[in-house]
Amino acid sequence: MAKKVVLVTGASRGIGKAIAVKFAKKGYNVIINCAHREQELMQTKKEIESYQVTCAAFLGDMGDMAVCEQLFSMIRKQFGSLDVLVNNAGIDYIGLLQDMSPEDWDRILRTNLTSVFNCCKLAIPLMLPAGHGKIVNISSVWGCVGASCEVAYSATKGGINAFTKALAKELAPSNIQVNAVACGAIDTEMNQWLEEDELIQLVEEIPAGRLGRAEEVADFVYHLGYKGSYLTGQVIGLDGGWI
């Protein structure tokens, strides 16, 4: 039986890397992508290949449709199919909205939201002939409730949440499920800018009493990508009871 195929964007480190490694451990062939961190991406590729699966690494901005088309052309040639798409690529911007430049706004919108449109648009034609598929979008609790000084980030994640619910309805008759994981505070590089006292304060706000781990997100995403054909259109919080 042919191995299943998963694409994980933003997979050079953090949550994306953990997800890609999890699927590799479960015997999936894996395509990984990131925009800039080539060295880290190749390191992730090496780690994935240690699980005796095929791994293709692609460097490029998924917010750029022309670049995204190159990636999907490679997927068609090398794998011929795609079972699971995990849209994880994302960047943050912390600061007052009034200080944000239009260029920063465009960049975060393109990286976090347009990338999801691009990848879904190109993945669907690969999934339709197979009669099944899973799309998992990595969102954030800030997409559900908003965060001060992270207005643009919150807007992109809120967009992902609405996109998820709408696309799920569109694709449900084709047996393609679309869900999102609204992550809380996860222990990755994205949160390493916090001072120690800020971190302690944050952890005190979380009922579970700790940050989440990237591996916990990966376990949950794998479950969504592997099972549950009746579960679709959901934005599921993974936040230790925080929000």
TrEMBL record:
The keyword Cell cycle does not apply. SUPFAM superfamilies: NAD(P)-binding Rossmann-fold domains (SSF51735). InterPro entries: KR_dom, NAD(P)-bd_dom_sf, Sc_DH/Rdtase_CS, SDR, SDR_fam. Residues 4-196 form the Ketoreductase domain. Keywords: Lipid metabolism, Oxidoreductase, Steroid metabolism. The keyword Ion transport does not apply. One of its GO terms (molecular function) is 3-oxoacyl-[acyl-carrier-protein] reductase (NADPH) activity. It is an enzyme of class 1 (oxidoreductase). Its EC number is 1.1.1.100. SMART domains: PKS_KR. Belongs to the short-chain dehydrogenases/reductases (SDR) family. This is 3-oxoacyl-ACP reductase FabG.
